Amino acid sequence: MTRVALIDDHESVRLGLEAACARAALDVVFSGSNVTEYLDWRAFSAALPADVVVLDLTLGDGTTVTENVRALVRDGSSVIIHSVADRPAAVREALAAGATGIVSKASPIGDVTAAIATVARGEPLNNVEWASAVEGDRAFADAQLSARERDVLRLYAAGLPLKVVADRLGVAYSTAKENITRVRVKYVEVGRPAPTKVDLLRRAMEDGILVEPASDPGGGVGGG
């Protein structure tokens, strides 16, 4: 069962999410008002990190969204931002810090639980709120990839093993591998690290390099 933590400084929001998660067979292991409480609970109970943390964009304890998202990702959880999504800059900040995506507080509660399930499966969360947060923001979107790097990233992020990517582009495997390494370095340089293949898929979707996730019988997102 997917283990979920809810972090929001509005108790009524947490209670509503707890009830919805129970109906969706999601196990809420923690519900609290800030990230420090969650990490203290983790340390005290020696519990495993939650699979998914649903995090309010702005908490009342003075912490920043970057601090909170980075702490949770570093602790081993995927993070979904649950927000009114009226502050695009803060949403972009959360995504740059490593959040998987955002679900608006105006969305039906079923959309929130569906998003949790999607992220728990290791799939990217691609929704309207996410797209509107990054659209047109070149400072966020531009990692200045070369045409070849974009081609390699497009195929690799779509699920193809790196050897197949090299064959399709007519380049050596070592060249394709070097391109992916450079892509990762460039994303780190603009504050958007992509250490895993799922992260690269997310970056490719954010930047319009890959419009939507593609599947390939020869290799999944974890291959190559």
Task: Please give the structural blueprint.
Blueprint: E1 3-7, H1 11-23, E2 27-32, H2 35-45, E3 52-56, H3 65-75, E4 78-83, H4 88-97, E5 101-104, H5 109-120, H6 128-134, H7 138-141, H8 147-157, H9 162-169, H10 173-189, H11 197-206
Parallel strand pairs: 1-2, 1-3, 3-4, 4-5
Class of secondary structure makeup: alpha/beta
Q: What order do the helices and strands follow?
A: EHEHEHEHEHHHHHHH
Q: Report the β-strand fraction as a percent range.
A: 5-15%
Low-confidence segments, given as residue ranges, are 213-224
- Secondary structure tally, helices: 11
- How much helix, percentage-wise, in residues? 40-55%
Oligomer: single chain
Number of strand segments: 5
Largest sheet properties: 5 strands, parallel
What is Rg?
Answer: 18 Å
Arithmetic mean pLDDT: 84
User: Order of strands in the sheet with the most strands?
Assistant: 2-1-3-4-5
Shape: elongated
